[in-house]
Write a structure and sequence with these properties.
Elements lengths: L1 H7 L1 H16 L2 H8 L4 E3 L9 E3 L1 H8 L1 H29 L3 H12 L3 E5 L1 H5 L6 H11 L6 H6 L3 H11 L1 H11 L4 H4 L6 H9 L3 E4 L5 H8 L6 E4 L2 E3 L1 H6 L4 E4 L14 H8 L12 H12 L1 E5 L7 H12 L7 E6 L6 H12 L3 E6 L5 H14 L11
């Protein structure tokens, strides 16, 4: 009777077997290691037929699938450990293991809010702020005083001069430079740091970037943003932030919406300050929202220089008011001046004063941003032991 049931359901069984076989084939590297060139032979009872030959991985998969997946998990954990050893050794050798542990704990509690800067989008050929300003300045024939302001990191003042000189050219540069081309859109799975963010958070992401890399990544991962704040323009953002739903705050706006741009000094003043003064107005949507995130989440700065930054000025204002308990924030930063230890001391002191704890990586080793986030996620998933690699 049982044989008849199998034969009667052969199409359905065949379909299931094809799905299972596809799963087995997807683990090609593990299968090769597990098999070690061994072959299992089973003799046939039919005299003229050769023996049946199978690999160990095939036999285990079809005979005891739970055991197969136990072996696969053990193998992948070993691979993950090997992959992370360099980053682990860097964190221990630079005495940054304890602050990294704290960052990992914050990520595991889903209370981290990534703050994504232009350095992340740079990987996809989008310009940094100084590069954008220099390019606009060149197209306007090198406006007097702009290069000096850029050299001093006074990007708002430089942008103001360029914006007033030719608003049309200024806005057109943003609209032309920041769309995502089809080539990048079709290759989202390889997008470094951004592809890890949906695994880290369930709530808020902040970015200074005009592009839509983050929206594309979260959409492709099946976790689209449910609330948006583009500059001062809100779309269900505050309600989603309060409920810890997925939402994105685009501080400088979105390239598709000219009325959302906040890049020049006058745009910043209108969005953040009282009247035409430089005093922050926390009744306005942007500073009020930033303050709420600063006091309720642990920010993780990624691809941000954190030099002279108006956002940091806002955080300092909140901290100096001494009205709130400020959580620990984190930043994965490049040690841009390894030959100048005082620069690092001064930078670290300034950030620690804002409850921002830096985790440093060597100059030029930008891949470590992705490696550190990946390491934290694998530790949380118990794929990696966070310990010093022994010689």
């Amino acid at each position: 009777m049982e044989n008849k049931i199998v034969k009667d359901n052969e199409p359905a069984i065949k379909k299931i077997e094809e799905i299972l076989q596809s799963g087995l084939n997807s683990n090609e590297k593990f299968n090769e290691v597990f098999d070690s060139e061994l072959t299992i032979e089973i003799n046939s009872l039919i005299a003229e037929r050769e023996s049946y030959k199978y690999t160990p991985s095939e036999v285990l998969f079809w005979v005891d699938r739970n055991a197969y997946y136990d072996e696969l998990e053990n193998y992948e954990n070993g691979e993950a450990q090997e992959m992370h050893n360099e980053t682990i050794e860097h964190l221990f050798s630079t005495d940054q293991d304890s602050v990294f542990e704290e960052l990992k704990d914050v990520i595991s509690r889903k209370r981290v809010a990534p703050f994504v800067g232009a350095g992340i989008s740079k990987s996809f050929d989008f310009p940094l702020w100084d590069e954008a300003l220099k390019s606009i300045n060149d197209s306007l024939g090198k406006v007097e005083g702009v290069e000096e302001l850029i050299a001093k990191y006074d990007y708002l003042a430089a942008a103001e001069i360029l914006y007033l000189r030719n608003t049309t050219i200024f806005n057109n540069y943003i609209r032309r430079k920041f769309p995502i081309g089809q080539e990048k859109r079709s290759d989202l799975v390889k997008w470094g740091v951004p592809r890890l963010l949906p695994k880290m958070i369930s709530g808020c992401v902040i970015t200074t970037n005009y592009d839509k890399i983050l929206e594309e990544i979260f959409e492709a991962d099946g976790k689209p943003f449910q609330g948006f704040m583009r500059g001062v323009n809100q779309d269900k953002f505050v309600s989603k932030l309060i409920k810890n739903d997925r939402c994105i705050l685009k501080l400088h706006g979105d390239y598709e919406y000219e009325d959302s741009y906040i890049f020049s000094q006058s745009q910043y003043t209108k969005a953040y300050c009282k009247d035409a003064s430089d005093f922050l107005d926390f009744t306005k949507p942007l500073p009020k929202t930033l303050r709420q995130i600063y006091i309720s989440h642990s920010l993780l700065f990624l691809g941000c220089s954190l030099e002279q930054d108006k956002t940091l000025d806002l955080f300092k204002s909140v901290k100096d008011q001494n009205q709130f308990d400020i959580p620990e924030h984190f930043a994965i930063l490049e040690n841009k001046m390894p030959g100048d230890p005082q620069w690092k001391i001064d930078t670290e002191s300034r950030l620690l004063g804002l409850n921002i704890r830096p985790i440093w990586y060597p100059k030029g080793e930008h891949k470590m941003i992705e490696q550190m986030i990946s390491l934290a996620l694998d530790i949380i998933d118990k794929k990696v032991n966070f310990k010093r690699k022994r010689s």
